[in-house]
Design brief:
It is a single chain. By secondary structure, the protein is of the alpha/beta class. It has a single domain, classed as Rossmann fold, CATH 3.40.50. It is built from nine helices and seven strands. A five-stranded parallel beta sheet has the order 1-7-6-2-3, with helices on both faces. It is globular. The structure holds zinc ion. Zinc ion binds near residues 11, 14, 27, 28 and 30.
Length: about 230
């Protein structure tokens, strides 16, 4: 299991590969182009290897016991948000599944992981509110879509089912994996529109850019390739 490390965007957690951006503590290109609707997104680790296997065991093999270890990881990720959070109660909202998917799988993995994490996070500060968001339709896979297409794909996919409970509140959205960020961004966007004062995101895993060391090697590799090509 690989931790993502410190060299990440302070807002969305994407790995920063530019040494200049790293030195300046800058945001990633994506967060600079468009301000995300959430204050900060954190993840426990990189979505590969053993961590990816654990998530797949839960989601696709229905091994519910893995929710325990994933919940512990989630709680650890959330602890990195604690210094930013206000004094009031934080509403914790797992990303909902569409009802057909929920029937197929029998459970919402984000909800199981959140339930376990909350046991470790001290019940006083956090209020579990799975009914606040509702998924109104299935969304097609985001793979291969442009940023614009991804946002179009998500439009209207979620609804704030209890807008009265959201106004002026700080909300923590939880999901198993952060891939492009489009799903949690759409959830955060509609929660903010419904009056949430601040929205945070925590996931167990996150897809990250290739390792910075590999990227730094590229010019040298290019030179070698050019030399080889003659
Ligand atoms: Zn970013």
């Amino acid at each position: 299991m690989r931790p993502i490390g410190d060299s990440v965007c302070p807002v969305c957690g994407e790995r920063l590969v530019s040494p200049l951006a790293l030195a300046a503590g800058e945001r990633c290109g994506s967060c600079r182009r468009a301000e995300p609707p959430f204050a900060k997104a954190v993840a426990y680790g990189s979505y590969d290897g053993r961590l990816r296997e654990l998530i797949h065991l839960l989601k696709y093999e229905q091994v519910r016991s893995t929710a325990g270890v994933l919940g512990r990881m989630l709680a650890e990720a959330v602890s990195n948000l604690a210094p930013l959070m206000g004094g009031g109660n934080i509403l914790v909202v797992p990303v909902p599944l569409y009802r057909r998917k929920l029937r197929q799988r029998g459970f919402n993995q984000a909800e199981l992981i959140t339930r376990d994490a909350l046991k470790r996070m001290g019940g006083q500060r956090f209020a579990f509110e799975p009914g606040i968001l509702e998924r109104r339709r299935e969304t097609q896979s985001q793979i291969g879509l442009t940023r614009h297409q991804r946002r179009e794909n998500m439009r209207g996919a979620f609804k704030v089912a209890k807008p009265g409970e959201v106004k002026g509140r700080e909300i923590l959205i939880v999901d198993d994996v952060y891939t492009t960020g489009t799903t949690v961004s759409e959830c955060a966007r509609i929660l903010r529109r419904a009056g949430a004062s601040k929205v945070y995101v925590a996931t167990v895993a996150r897809t990250v850019k290739a390792d910075a060391r590999v990227v730094k090697l590229q010019p040298e590799e290019e030179k070698q390739a050019m030399a080889a090509a003659g």
